[in-house]
TrEMBL record:
GO terms for molecular function: guanyl-nucleotide exchange factor activity. CDD domains: F-box_FBXO8 (cd22088), Sec7 (cd00171). It comes from the Eukaryota. May promote guanine-nucleotide exchange on an ARF. Promotes the activation of ARF through replacement of GDP with GTP. Residues 68-111 form the F-box domain. This is F-box only protein 8.
Length: 319
């Protein structure tokens, strides 16, 4: 049955190309006669397969022509929507075909703001000769420079007028950018505590459960691999910010920044205990409640139990 359907489809294809059944047989008969007159075997094979290969290439070419989409023939809104899904490399390649469309400022503006959410230059009047395509290249170059040397990267952004020399502007840029190397960023924030202070204030932990808020915090500001003064500074700043975002909850639970600091350290130690393969005897929920309430006596047992469940089910707070 499958072969029968294939023959029907083949005949319809040949008829669509202008070959009737009789005409095709006549051509096939003539091809066979011509083949018999060719003494060379290789020529005979080429002649026998010549028509099939020709029709195959012709059909393929026609299908490609039918399936080819010329974006310039579409409405501009639809063309820009299609091109907006491309990254910078593909958009540059597209500009070789559709130069006017792919070089549109709105497309490059969207690429800039989707990768670097905040830049000081966004809120300024653009200088003469400004283009978002050029800005994208500068932002990309500055990010690569930052990932090699953070200080040189920030200086590059300032020299191009992309960032203002302000800790708050630098903090907003870091907060809204995902292309910066987190190891280099950690070194930079450890040296620039003024930028770190403004970066912490950009977080909004309102109505968030403590372990979830701590995870979000460490996604933007990565925790150091070892305990030390920098980790203590991060937890201290987080504790004060968390309390400032949830004043009603702090009064209800009777928590202070110092108590939140203790809880954060307990959550980090519990995360290491439960996720590390080197720890054979995992801490139980009862042990965690007992140890935590020993350090912070005003915390309810149920609240500490919910903290344990969150780490047990979701995982490390600083992963």
């Amino acid at each position: 049955m499958g072969q029968g359907l294939w023959r029907v489809a083949r005949n319809q294809q040949l008829q669509h190309q202008g070959y009737s059944g009789q005409g095709y047989l006549t051509r096939e008969h003539g091809r066979r006669i011509a083949t018999n007159n060719v003494p060379n075997t290789s020529h005979r094979k080429q002649a026998q397969g010549g028509i099939d290969i020709y029709h195959l290439l012709k059909t393929r070419k026609s299908k490609e022509q039918e399936g080819f989409i010329n974006l310039e023939m579409l409405p501009p809104e639809l063309s820009f929507t299609i091109l907006s899904y491309l990254n910078a490399t593909d958009l540059c390649l597209a500009s070789c075909v559709w130069q006017d469309l792919a070089n549109d400022e709105l497309l490059w503006q969207g690429l800039c703001k989707s990768t670097w959410g905040h830049c000081s230059i966004y809120n300024k009047n653009p200088p003469l000769g400004f283009s978002f395509r050029k800005l994208y290249m500068q932002l990309d170059e500055g990010s690569l420079t930052f990932n090699a040397n953070p200080d040189e990267g920030v200086n590059y952004f300032m020299s191009k007028g992309i960032l203002d020399d302000s800790p708050k502007e630098i903090a907003k840029f870091i907060f809204c950018t995902r292309t910066l190397n987190w190891k280099k960023l950690r070194i930079y924030l450890d040296e620039r505590r003024d930028v770190l202070d403004d970066l912490v204030t950009l977080h909004n932990f309102r109505n968030q459960f403590l372990p979830n808020a701590l995870r979000e915090f460490f996604r933007h500001i990565h925790a150091p691999e070892e305990r030390g003064e920098y980790l203590e500074t991060l937890i201290t700043k987080f504790s004060h910010r968390f309390c400032a975002c949830n004043p009603d909850l702090m009064r209800e639970l009777g928590l202070s920044p110092d108590a939140v600091y203790v809880l954060c350290y307990s959550l980090i130690l519990l995360s290491i205990d439960l996720t590390s393969p080197h720890v054979k005897n995992k801490m139980s929920k009862r042990e965690f409640i007992r140890n935590t309430r020993r350090a912070a006596q005003n915390i309810s047992e149920d609240f500490v139990g919910h903290l344990y469940d969150n780490i047990y089910l979701i995982g490390h707070v600083a992963a």
